[in-house]
Amino acid sequence: MGADQHLDWRNIAASTLDWWLEAGVDTLVEERPRDWLVPDALPAPAPLPPAAPAAAPNPGYPVTYEEFLAYRMGDQAPDAKWALARVAPSGDPATAALMVLTDVPEEADAAAGHLLAGPEGRLLDRMLAAIGLAREQTLIASVCVARPLAGRVPRASATELEAMARHLVGIVRPRRLLLLGQIASRAVLGPKAGAHGDCSDMLSDDNLACKAVATYHPRVLLERPMCKAEAWRDLQLLIEENDA
């Protein structure tokens, strides 16, 4: 009776977390829960011990695109154990006019065999067409090649996955780079990465010197169409003077 009561709470929760992640909120305000009924005069809890430093990423990644792709899709990658199905980057690094980096494969991508195969990809295709590009002219890659269970990059694997994403961008050396969402931006630009806009000046590695723009992920634009105007302004930053 009435509306359908069979809600997918996991996807709803993940969508809510994506909202805060895209807004730049990725940590709790306080590490310990607070009892708001206790007066403020009580002594503050003792500080937590410092977290152990994250393991340094493997510096020995292959240096050619083909070798790195084989390594990245192999069983030794940190996300290989998440799922049997893995989704490789698509496009030719030698001819691509634009590199697009997303965070994780969407639910439909493994079955389709390529990234952004569902409604998020159809929206991306329209975004690219608006600046005069087709998917065939782009190289599309992701920070993770396997989809995490919750659809978000686990913190325990984030350091190495981000290092591998930066390494891939350094191999491709794109003229133009579009970063979809906060996770992709942080992987390439570091923890101070913004959610959108021109971020070319944040590229510190000489191999990453290019026109870099961050914008909202298409899944966010599908949920919050009011952000499309701002995403359009971001996309216009990718149009070179000789393309106009």
Automatic annotation (TrEMBL):
Signal peptide: none annotated. The keyword Glycoprotein does not apply. Keywords: 4Fe-4S, DNA damage, DNA repair, Glycosidase, Hydrolase, Iron, Iron-sulfur, Metal-binding. Residues 90-236 form the Uracil-DNA glycosylase-like domain. It comes from the Bacteria. This is Uracil-DNA glycosylase. It comes from Sphingomonas molluscorum. Its EC number is 3.2.2.27. PANTHER family: TYPE-4 URACIL-DNA GLYCOSYLASE (PTHR33693:SF1), TYPE-5 URACIL-DNA GLYCOSYLASE (PTHR33693). The keyword Lyase does not apply. One of its GO terms (molecular function) is uracil DNA N-glycosylase activity. Pfam families: UDG.
